[in-house]
Amino acid sequence: MERQAYLREACGKIGRETGLPLSLGLAVNKLVSRVGATEAGPGGARLVEAGAEIQFVGELRRTLEDVYLQLVQKERDG
Asked: What's the angle, vertex CA 74, arms to CA 62 and CA 56, rounded to 5?
């Protein structure tokens, strides 16, 4: 079974058995794991493979920059 699918399955099973919302993030360090879990959202799971941390954080940075620019534009327009 693919690792990401296994992680999603484990998250779902734990959530069903405990009745608690659960987010899982799996990475080589705690910081990236936490960010991955937050990005996955409730009931979600995110695997960041070893060596893919810089790309993962870079994608988040671009997303945050886009959100910031949208907020600035809304402030200017409204």
From this structure: 10
